[in-house]
Amino acid sequence: MPIRPYLKGVDVAAFDADAVRAMCDAFEGACRALRSTLNREPVRRILAKRIIALAAYGERDPDRLRAAALTGLGLAEVAAPTSTDSSVPRRPDLPTATCLSEPSYG
User: Number of folded domains in the chain?
Assistant: First the structure.
């Protein structure tokens, strides 16, 4: 499931190719983590909006984008990182998904 349909109304020029790739990877990973139980359109829309909002703040790590979006929905048990790449430092200046209100994209 691509994130691109959820980018309607978003200034995609603000995102470089790496950001778009990270958002796509994070979104697809989040949808896979949900499997079929919660993988419905309203949930996917909220996940996409959270991922886009965090990417707008500068987060580029797909694992952190995915985990933050899932944790923000109260799904911390499925939000465990999929990789052990610690070479990308955590960005303490970025908001967590739990402090983001639902963005008003498209």
Answer: 1
